[in-house]
Amino acid sequence: MMLSIFNNAPTYMTVFTVYIFFLPFFFLLSIFLAKRKKIKLHFISQTFLLGLTLLFVLYFEIMIRIYGGFLDFANDSFVPYPFLLGFLIFHIILASISLGGWIYLYISSLKAINKKSPNSFNKIKHKKIGISIFIALTVSSITGLFIYIFLFFRY
């Protein structure tokens, strides 16, 4: 049995949820750097956050397959299974889109910067996509927190 540190949740689930909870705040700090025209620091922070997030997702995926998945945790939930399953599917789709969009924006920005052509980087497009990713990431973070509560909250 996996060590539980909060509400019967496995440690890996709690660690992942805490990181995902704070991710939008870290992302917002990175955006703040861009607004302050500290573009290099913005790029470094985005590189770090994206890399760390991908490592956390990999960690989560490995651990959930080793120690049990959704069906095991859903058995003890106070939330009806059909709602829980629908909510999880919504969360997975949103999380996948936001992470995929973030990877796309990072790679396309990196390519544009490496071209060293003044017209290759579109700041307005980058900003619009970045705002969309931030919103999707924040909503995904909130839905992930709710899944954690639905699965492990005991009263």
Explained architecture:
The chain is mainly alpha-helical. The model is unreliable at 1-5 (pLDDT under 50). Strand 1 and strand 2 form a beta hairpin. Helix content is 80%, strand content 3%. The protein has a two-stranded antiparallel sheet. It is elongated, with a radius of gyration of 18 Å. Helix 4 runs antiparallel to helix 5 (123-152). The chain has helices spanning 11-35, 39-67, 70-74, 81-115, 123-152; strands spanning 4-6, 9-10.
Keyword list:
5 helices; disordered N terminus; 2 strands; mainly alpha; two-stranded antiparallel ribbon
Structural class: mainly alpha
How helical, in percent, are the residues? Answer: over 70%
Question: Strand percentage, roughly?
Answer: under 5%
SSE series: EEHHHHH
Estimated radius of gyration: 18 Å
Q: How far apart lie the N and C ends? A: 22 Å
Main beta sheet: 2 strands, antiparallel
Structure annotation, total helices: 5
Mean of residue pLDDT?
A: 89
Physical arrangement of strands within the biggest beta sheet: 1-2
Morphology: elongated
Parts with pLDDT < 50 across at least 5 consecutive residues: 1-5
Oligomer: single chain
Annotate the secondary structure layout.
Blueprint: E1 4-6, E2 9-10, H1 11-35, H2 39-67, H3 70-74, H4 81-115, H5 123-152
Antiparallel strand pairs: 1-2
Helix pairs in contact: 1-2, 1-5, 4-5
Structure summarized in a few sentences:
By secondary structure, the chain is mainly α. The chain has helices spanning 11-35, 39-67, 70-74, 81-115, 123-152, and strands at residues 4-6, 9-10.
